[in-house]
Amino acid sequence: MQHLLRGRRSRLLVAALLSAAAIVLPLWGMTLVSTQYPEGLRLVVYPSYIRGDVSEINALNHYIGMTPISDDFFGELRLLPASLALIAVACGAAAFVRHVWMDLLPLGLMTGLAGFGAWSMHHRLYQFGHDLDPTAPIRITPFTPPMLGTNQIAQFATYAYFSWGTFLTLAAGALVVLVLVDDLRGSRPAPRLRVAPAPA
Amino acid sequence: MHRTTTWLAVVVVAGIAGCSTKPQAPGQRAMATGDVQQAALASYIKPGDLDTYYLFYSGGHSGQVFVAGVPSMRHIATIPVFAPYPGTGYGFDEESRKLLGDFTWGDLHHPALSKTDGDYDGRWLFVNDNANNRIARIDLHDLKTKQILGPIPNTMGNHGSSMVINNTEYALVATRFSVPLGSQYAPLEEYATKFKGAVTGIKVDPKDGTMSIGWQIMTPPFNWDLGATGKGGSDGWAFWTSYNSERATGKLESASAQRDRDYVAVVNWKAAEQAAKAGKTFEVGGGRMIDPAKTAGVMWLLPCGKSPHGVDVDPSGEYVICSGKLQPTSTVFSFKKIQEAISRQDFTGNEDGIPVIKYESAMLMEVPVGLGPLHTQFDGKGYAYTSLYVESAITKWKLPPYAAGTDPKSVVVDKIPVQFNVGHLVTAEGDTRHPQGTYLVAMNKMSKGRHLNVGPSIPESSQLIDISGGKMKMIYEAYTEPEPHFAQLVRREILKPIEFYPKEENKDPNAIWAPKDARVIRNAATHTVEGRIYAIRSYFEPGRVQVQEGDTVVLHVTNAEQQRDEIHGFGIVALNKNVVIDPGETKTLKFIARKSGVYPYYCTNFCSALHQEMQGYLEVVPAGQALAMYRNGEGQMLPAPAHDLAARH
């Protein structure tokens, strides 16, 4: 493992692999616990869909007039898998083309995705907590569910957390940063732009 | 037991038994303090914890099955089978109405779990109807009645049922009352000759459990009582007890007790199956009947103590135990000896051409169990437990093998009084090849005020007895509605019921999962209104259904919940309609809107904080008055949407 993370190419290939793996792994989740739901209700966001007790959470949320959660509602979910795939390809390409710009490309994509993801999450959470049907049976003060950590909404204690898909993407980013630092230091001076032979 | 047995012997044994157990006054508790503490711990299940056994006990003439947990004896659920049950909407929706047909009650006596290799496999529960000649199958996937088969031909009172064979090939049926074949008429004067009994094998589809009439065997006009199936060495065989071998009519309590012996039918069901396959049958009343006088090798008769109820086969399959209610002994027969007697043709005569096996040749021992022995079960540790109706006790006794010259009295090892008049008993998995030897439930026919006084119409009592040690210990008692006969006691891990119906598995073409798909369409030409109603916390969509007076109304209600315990009801006020829909289920309600008016409908099964608000209106518009509807593109009449929930969700 350590050996894998030492070489430039292997670092970038691992980063490509991690980004690709993130496509099918959960990014973020929320667990709601109350007396009636001691086992908790789960909402798990994957790059292309939402899983967990969605229908039950919607059934409960409609009392406070929240918009029902569905895959279709989130346009972001259509972009995420492609973005992660693009990052994986960029990492893979950089593995075979040693150039600072080739390091900066996946890093830029990652930073962009992370920034957009964080903004979009916050925006969506805000939207869910504020865009409440005024005719709903229960009227509550608008709120923003936290992206991370615990919160209490009526009888529900909520726990929000990031998950494997996010961690792997961040790890991939860290690997690319290491590669970039090495390449900038020139510890192993970057040769002319050339296509590397196929790895043995 | 000898042929000279008389009531004198009964009285003598009664005297002995009377000395060994203290008489108990009703309501008196006989346990010492230490025992009480032990028993309390043995039956206590702390809130939130689960029992270790399911007890499925028959509801008798209530027509239902009760489910309780053991050791707590808490009643958990009622599974409606032969009678409507508004609590679950059974008998109100189209599917369950079809199951019930024109009958509104049944007399459910003997539940039997399906088996694989002689042990419970947790797939189905078969139950008989002594009243209307039916047999039903409950699917243990959701604990719902899935099929009611019947009336079974040539059967009047399906009592000796529904024992299940080792690999659930058949569920067994025997007619309690003998009548002329094919539902014909013959005067009672011709009872002995024109009336016939029948035992029947109900074929069970090994994949989905669907039952169909298999073979039938014609018998002399005895009254068939209870059955048991062979296992191990006796696999392929079945046994039924009979009473009234006198072929009497009139006052049977004495007329049927004149002979010293009645019979156990010994049936080679594999031979019966073969005979039916080979076409050695005649058609009568819709059944394929084998005449055992003409087809040898199918049925024999074995004398046993008079007026027997239970016949039971021990876990090894070698010992067949039969108890005559009017004699103080249980007779142990050896299956091997029965086989030898059959092959030697060691017969003492015949009944209508059916050979009668010589009693002494097949009998191993008469065990002096006590007064009024009724039914026997096993613990898998070499002991049998026999219920004593007259004596109000359970006897524990040792099964063979016995050393030569064993004193029959020494075989009885323990006896415990029960309150009162025990009928059947059930031990944990006691009719399988591997009984658990943990608990025994005595289902007593009389409770005689051991409970709070509830007036003259009182429940039965069921008592839980610990049989894990050498001595039986009374642990607990519970009261059940009328009236448990037999039961099945099965480890909880054998069953794997669902928690709700996953919507992917709902195959009802009228199921809907979004309020936008709810609609009510009226066909003006046929005066029919058909609607798909969506039910979820805490509203129905639509909240308004409009029909014309005289219309036939068909409403398919889907409970769109996917959460355990989110059950919704759909009751219509003043119209005697109530369906209860489990999460993920669709049920259909059909009726004619006879009288104009406004009939509210509401959720009958408490679902949520706004359950009370979960309601709508059925408008029955007077004939001739226009409906507030619009016509869609296809010329169908649709009611105006009641509110805009559909647009939002």
List the helices and strands and how they pair.
The complex is a heterodimer of chains A (200) and B (649).
Chain A: H1 8-22, E1 28-34, E2 37-45, E3 50-52, H2 54-61, H3 76-96, H4 100-130, E4 149-153, E5 156-162, H5 164-185
Antiparallel strand pairs in A: 1-2, 1-5, 2-3, 4-5
Chain B: H1 7-20, H2 33-43, E1 53-58, E2 64-70, E3 75-80, H3 94-100, E4 112-116, E5 119-129, E6 134-139, E7 144-149, E8 156-158, E9 170-177, E10 179-180, H4 191-194, E11 195-204, E12 211-219, E13 223-229, E14 237-243, H5 252-255, E15 261-268, H6 269-277, E16 282-284, E17 287-290, E18 299-305, E19 308-313, E20 319-324, E21 330-334, H7 335-344, E22 347-351, E23 354-357, H8 359-362, E24 363-367, E25 373-378, E26 383-388, E27 393-398, H9 408-411, E28 412-417, E29 422-427, E30 439-444, E31 460-466, E32 473-480, E33 487-491, E34 519-523, E35 528-536, E36 539-541, E37 544-548, E38 552-559, E39 568-572, E40 577-581, E41 586-592, E42 597-602, E43 615-621, E44 629-631, E45 637-639, H10 645-648
Parallel strand pairs in B: 12-17, 35-38, 37-43
Antiparallel strand pairs in B: 1-2, 1-33, 2-3, 4-5, 5-6, 6-7, 8-9, 9-11, 10-11, 11-12, 13-14, 14-15, 15-18, 16-17, 19-20, 20-21, 21-24, 22-23, 25-26, 26-27, 27-28, 29-30, 30-31, 31-32, 34-35, 35-36, 38-41, 39-40, 39-42, 42-43, 44-45
What's this entry about, in short?
The complex is a heterodimer of chains A (200) and B (649). Chain A is an alpha+beta fold.
